[in-house]
Amino acid sequence: MRVRDILFAVLIGLGLWQAIVILTDAPHFILPSPWRVAQAAYKSRVTIAENAWVTAIEVMLGLLIGTLLGVATAIQLAMSKIVERLLLPILVFTQAVPVFALAPLLTLWFGYGMGSKIVMAVLIIYFPVTSAFHDGLTRIDGGYRDLSVSMGAGKWNFMRHIQIAQALPSLGSGLRLAAVYAPIGAVIGEWVGASKGLGYLMLLANGRAKIDLMFASLIVLACLTVLLHIAVGLLATRLTRYAQGTTSP
Amino acid sequence: MNLSPGISIKGQHRIQGDVLFDVNLDIPGGLWTCLLGRSGVGKSTILRIILGLETGGAFEGIFRATDGASLNGRIGYMAQSDLLLPWLSVLDNVCIGARLRGEPPSEARARDLLRRVGLMEHTDQKPATLSGGMRQRAALARTLFEDRPIVFLDEPFSALDAGTRADMQELAAEVLIDRTVLLVTHDPAEAARLAHQITVMSTRKVQNWPVPQTKALRDINAPETLACQSKLLEYLRGGTA
User: Fold this and answer.
1) What is the pLDDT confidence band of residue A43, given thresholds at 50, 70 and 90?
2) A22, A61, A233, B66: most buried, per Cβ within 10 A?
3) Interhelix angle B107-116/B132-145, nearest 10 degrees
4) Confidence of residue B70 (pLDDT cuts 50, 70, 90)
């Protein structure tokens, strides 16, 4: 049922696109038809696949590293009032700096390779993951805290056995956001300076007036993002069900 | 010989400068003391003060065990909510205290306790699959796993239906025998049935109440139990002692 709905929506989108091409009579270097884009995608399939692979790796590594850093920071913030008082305002302040504005600097520091794009993705998802998980860790049921105190629990053991598990649904919410933001970070990094990746390919195609290839790259990027969103959504649902005791880990 | 110590507490509890209550209470060792009173008089607060939990106010006074030793680590606690961790099995929930202290849990002992509370068939299930009564039995097994000589029960049966509540009262009286139990309750019937000592708390005073002369875990329909329950209810509704 769901697959049928998606296919139906895609068909409607393609139909609308084709209708706009016909009605506006736009030249193909301004708005190529879906068929022309499909032809370009097939012709350049190897190039697109190679560049998509690079972007996918950047996004996945950025997501992984950003999540690990965010989780570690959130745990530190939740465990120490002093760290929370010192670090949280700094973290919030850093959000006032648009991460996109840092892209040229990151390229300068980490080069034209994957490094600068991974760092960009890490920076863009770090705060949402940290913030969501920290919120979950500190919104602990007071009854659990009372029980733990009466049982003589250590701070770390309380964190390890209760707080983290109870905060997994919040981490899932943070990861859902991260899955949307991470590709944006990687592609912006590629726009600023890269030799590979879908963002780079789009710029290259644009510069050579190959708008059909640009559209093909854009569609592949959108598909990658949707796939990532679905995968992370499944993970987030699993985390929530685990915390609710309705599924095994 | 009874090894469970009693507790005495004397002092005044204030919230933002206002006196919530004055207390001078002796909880006898190895027996059940039921603490009754209207909502908001501070019954649970007394329990929380002794346990060292957050109360939202300040207690000025002293509390100590009658054997002179520290109370630290000698009090088990069971709340109204079962506080079972949804992601753990019933067995792992029973052992959680050991894990929280960083000690290796004895699963054999946990299984034995689950057998005592009638949950042997449900050790690997998650709490979400259990009924309210079964969850409270699991919470009772978790309290027993701690093996503390003193146990504080904060309205643990109040959310259960009448039949399950009566069953849980019997089970708790059986498995907590010889321990010092402080039960906070709203229910005069519960106090009349279970208590060796009934203490009634109001904003003005904390006073002991006459207990039926029959053995605790009394018959619900016995005339002494019903009379005690009736007089308690009358007092709690604003009558006189």
Assistant:
1) very high
2) A61
3) 130
4) very high
ipTM of this predicted complex?
0.87
**What 3-state DSSP class applies to B21?**
strand
Domain membership of residue A130 (yes or no) is yes
- Asked if residue A170 belongs to a domain, the reply is yes
Å between B126 CA and nearest CA of chain A: 6
Tokens coding B34: 């039921």
Q: Does A163 share its domain with A230? A: yes
Mutation target among A150, A161, A171, A246 for the B interface, most CBs of B within 10 A: A150
Q: Do A73 and A8 belong to one domain?
A: no
CA distances from A226 to A56, A63, A195, A230, A233 (A): 12, 15, 24, 6, 10
The type of residue at B198 is I
Of B54, B79, B101, the CB nearest to A151: B101
Q: How remote is the C-alpha of A195 from its chain's centroid?
A: 22
Could you read off the pLDDT of B5-58 as tens digits, one per residue? 999 999 999 988 888 888 899 999 999 999 999 888 889 999 999 999 999 899
Residues of B in contact with A143 (CB under 8 A): 79, 81, 83
Collect all residues of chain B within an 8 Å Cβ-Cβ radius of residue A150: 51, 53, 75-77, 152
Choose among A146, A147, A243: nearest Cβ to B86. Answer: A243
Mean pLDDT of A22-44: 89
Record the tokens describing residue B227, joined without a space.
């009379």
Tell me which chain B residues have a C-beta less than 8 angstroms from the C-beta of A244.
Answer: 86-87, 128
Q: Indicate if A6 and A101 belong to the same structural domain.
A: no
Distance from CA of B122 to the nearest CA of A (A): 14
Length of chain A counted residue by residue: 249
Task: State pLDDT tens for residues B153-177.
Answer: 999 988 888 888 888 899 899 889 9
- Shortest alpha-carbon distance between residue A234 and chain B (Å): 18
